[in-house]
């Protein structure tokens, strides 16, 4: 049986590696950050580093995933596990909360900076793009699909293609990230007010009447 004290220590060690790597990726970029530099910055051995992260690509993907989770500034993680809305009002509130957390995480300045790193490196390192896709976009779409599936099973909404509907929900939100985050140049992201998110959620709810 595993030592019950191991899990908290393991989580702390992983966070230590992730935090050190994030600083280096932001400061030097992905390609210029060596595993030796990560080991030194995180103050761990190479054996420990590889035990948690077999590759730099997986480490960067995990950094991005956790920036999304932490983007709500201390709120609960981006998840809808166990959510089962039994009315359209409940579904709308759940989608609104999910959209706010998503935008908050995606507009984090560190997240935006690291996504630029991923975009720059993906052509040279296709695996990095695949890892990013599975760690962030596909995961977010899965959360939305799970929520819509629960609403469909509860009779809150009618038959709907949850994959297409999830993309229809997330897609418009990403325009704010692209136009007000990634493409603002060297300045910080410029998040829009909550009324923009509310409007996007309202439009989506009308589309699944």
TrEMBL record:
Residue ranges constituting the HTH tetR-type domain according to the UniProt record: 11-71
Biological process (GO) annotations held by this record are: negative regulation of DNA-templated transcription
Q: What GO molecular function terms would the record report?
A: DNA-binding transcription factor activity; transcription cis-regulatory region binding
Q: InterPro entries, from UniProt?
A: Homeodomain-like_sf, HTH-type_TetR-like_transc_reg, HTH_TetR, Tet_transcr_reg_TetR-rel_C_sf, TetR_C_Proteobacteria
Q: Which Pfam families does the record match to this protein? A: TetR_C_7, TetR_N
Q: Does the keyword Transmembrane apply?
A: no
Please indicate if the UniProt record lists Repeat as a keyword: no
The entry's keywords: DNA-binding, Transcription, Transcription regulation
Q: Which residue numbers delimit the DNA-binding region?
A: 34-53
Q: What is this protein called?
A: HTH tetR-type domain-containing protein
Native organism is uncultured Rubrobacteraceae bacterium
């Amino acid at each position: 049986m595993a030592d019950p004290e191991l899990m908290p220590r393991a989580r702390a060690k992983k966070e230590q590696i992730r935090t050190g790597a994030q600083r280096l990726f932001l400061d030097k970029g992905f390609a210029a950050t060596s595993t030796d530099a990560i080991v030194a910055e995180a103050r761990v051995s190479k054996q420990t580093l590889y035990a948690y992260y077999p590759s730099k690509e997986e480490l960067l993907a995990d950094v991005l995933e956790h920036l999304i989770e932490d983007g709500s500034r201390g709120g609960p993680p981006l998840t809808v596990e166990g959510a089962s809305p039994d009315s359209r009002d409940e579904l709308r509130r759940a989608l609104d909360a999910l959209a706010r957390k998503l935008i908050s995480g995606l507009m984090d300045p560190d997240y935006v900076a690291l996504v630029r790193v991923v975009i720059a490196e993906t052509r040279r390192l296709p695996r990095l793009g695949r890892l990013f896709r599975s760690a962030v976009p596909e995961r977010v779409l899965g959360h939305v699909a799970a929520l819509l599936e629960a609403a469909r099973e509860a009779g809150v909404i009618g038959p709907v293609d949850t994959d297409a509907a999830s993309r229809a929900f997330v897609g418009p939100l990403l325009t704010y990230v692209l136009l007000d985050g990634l493409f603002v140049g060297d300045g910080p992201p410029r998040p829009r007010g909550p009324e923009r998110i509310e409007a996007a959620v309202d439009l989506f709810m009308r589309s699944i009447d």
